[in-house]
Specification:
This protein has 94 residues and is mainly alpha-helical. Helix content is 49%, strand content 9%. The radius of gyration is 18 Å and the shape is elongated.
């Protein structure tokens, strides 16, 4: 019962936020980005070679994600709603 009330209250807050917000939030789906999280993959020569063979571009950087994050937050994308922006160096193109 307690969990049901919590879930319902979260859902209600979410509905209130979405009705106050002029557009649905968009999402960013990052590919391999050079961070401390991917350092073990970069250090493993075999795995790193497999990843780089699959993507035509080098590993992405935080700057690549920053540019993608600015787009949905600007007025230029006011009519964009609920999209998933894939920033993956063409990983999904293969």
């Amino acid at each position: 019962m307690y969990y049901e009330r919590c879930a319902n209250s979260r859902a209600e807050r979410s509905r209130k936020y979405m009705s106050a917000c002029p557009r649905c939030p968009s999402q960013i789906a990052p590919g391999y980005i050079a961070t401390t999280n991917t350092e073990p993959l970069q250090a493993d020569e075999t795995r790193n070679r497999q990843i780089l063979k699959r993507i035509p571009l080098p590993l992405g950087s935080r700057r690549d994600l920053a540019g993608a994050a600015l787009s949905p937050s600007s007025a230029a994308s006011d009519y964009v709603a609920g999209t998933v922006l894939t920033v993956d160096g063409e990983w999904m193109e293969r």
